[in-house]
């Protein structure tokens, strides 16, 4: 499998995962034009994409989904409540409803949706397996059982590391927004994410891509510094990288 974060942050989220020459998107929260441009930067063709898997209805996860689906005739997979609470596509034939804990076989991968705690109608994250396992877990209020179970069984992990607590508390956001971000329906802090990996990651975990970093309440260097706590695990030697809002990451290969 190959994976790149085309974008990750409050301005838009989109992850590209390919297996045997065919690919899917997890979320399409940037414009179709941006998706195509960023795919070209990693030398990938949008015609490879055979499905868009939506995590929840917030605009930074669905912004480009409907147009991309129509332009490239790509099906959209989402929970029924997610579809009901947003505009994804006027052509219902391109929508496939999925369930929490449901699995879709596509592109030689088993793609499983699992529930997560976040302020949305029916939010899910996804794991993708072909013998190796990639989990894409963002927009999570706390490390719930579903989250830790997938972290504990992953070879490659895209994990939310949204904010630094001190930056959030001292930052410009109003009190109610700070309270929501820190709540069990909000977003994982750097430390929450790092402790989740420290406590639950398998020794075979190869890579953690820190994702959905706040532009206002986080900094890549601070996030990476927090993850140095993983040195406490002598059996764990995972690479740590950071996704970007403005450009795709390199294409990582998982053999």
Structural notes for this entry:
There is one protein chain. The chain has 255 residues and is an alpha/beta fold. The protein has one domain: Ribonuclease Z/Hydroxyacylglutathione hydrolase-like (Metallo-beta-lactamase, Chain A, 4-Layer Sandwich), CATH 3.60.15. Helices cover 26% and strands 27% of the residues. The chain is built from 9 helices and 14 strands. The chain has helices at residues 32-41, 59-62, 65-72, 80-84, 145-151, 165-170, 175-182, 190-200, 220-226, and strands at residues 2-7, 14-19, 22-26, 49-53, 76-79, 95-98, 103-106, 109-115, 124-129, 133-137, 156-160, 207-211, 239-242, 252-253. A 7-stranded mixed sheet has the order 6-5-4-3-2-1-14. Strands 7-8-9-10-11-12-13 form a 7-stranded mixed sheet, with helices on one face. The chain is globular and about 45 Å long.
Order of helices and strands: EEEHEHHEHEEEEEHEHHHEHEE
In CATH, the architecture is 4-Layer Sandwich
Anisotropy-based shape: globular
In the CATH scheme, the class would be Alpha Beta
Radius of gyration: 17 Å
Counted beta strands: 14
Average pLDDT number: 96
Task: Give the amount of beta strand, in percent.
Answer: 25-35%
Helix/strand-derived category reads alpha/beta
Q: Termini, distance in Å?
A: 7 Å
**Biggest beta sheet summary:** 7 strands, mixed
Q: What order do the strands of the largest sheet run in, or round the barrel if closed?
A: 6-5-4-3-2-1-14
Uncertain residue ranges:
none
**Residues in helix, %:** 25-40%
Q: In CATH, what is the homologous superfamily?
A: Ribonuclease Z/Hydroxyacylglutathione hydrolase-like
The count of helical stretches stands at: 9
Counted up, domains total: 1
Q: Within the CATH hierarchy, at the fold level, what is the topology?
A: Metallo-beta-lactamase, Chain A
């Amino acid at each position: 499998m190959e994976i790149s974060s085309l974008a990750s942050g409050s301005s838009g989220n989109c992850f590209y995962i390919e297996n045997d020459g065919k690919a899917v998107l997890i979320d399409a929260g940037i414009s179709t034009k941006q998706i195509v441009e960023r795919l070209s930067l990693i030398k990938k063709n949008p015609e490879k994409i055979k499905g868009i898997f939506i995590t929840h209805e917030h605009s930074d996860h669905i912004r480009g989904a409907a147009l991309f689906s129509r332009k490239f005739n790509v099906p959209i997979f989402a929970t029924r409540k997610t579809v009901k609470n947003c505009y994804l596509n006027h052509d219902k034939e391109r929508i496939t409803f999925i369930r929490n804990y449901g699995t879709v076989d596509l592109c030689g991968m088993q793609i499983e949706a699992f529930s997560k705690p976040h302020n949305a109608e029916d939010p899910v994250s996804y794991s993708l397996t072909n013998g190796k396992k990639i989990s894409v877990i963002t927009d999570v209020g706390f490390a719930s059982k579903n989250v830790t179970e997938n972290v504990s069984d992953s070879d490659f992990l895209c994990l939310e590391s949204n904010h630094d607590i001190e930056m959030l508390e001292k930052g410009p956001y109003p009190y109610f927004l700070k309270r929501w971000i820190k709540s069990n329906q909000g977003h994982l802090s750097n430390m929450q994410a790092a402790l989740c990996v420290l406590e639950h990651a398998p020794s075979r975990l190869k890579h953690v891509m820190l994702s959905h970093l706040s532009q206002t309440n986080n900094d890549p260097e601070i996030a990476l510094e927090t993850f140095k706590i993983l040195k406490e695990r002598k059996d764990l030697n995972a690479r740590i990288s950071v996704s970007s809002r403005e450009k795709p990451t390199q294409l990582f290969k998982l053999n």
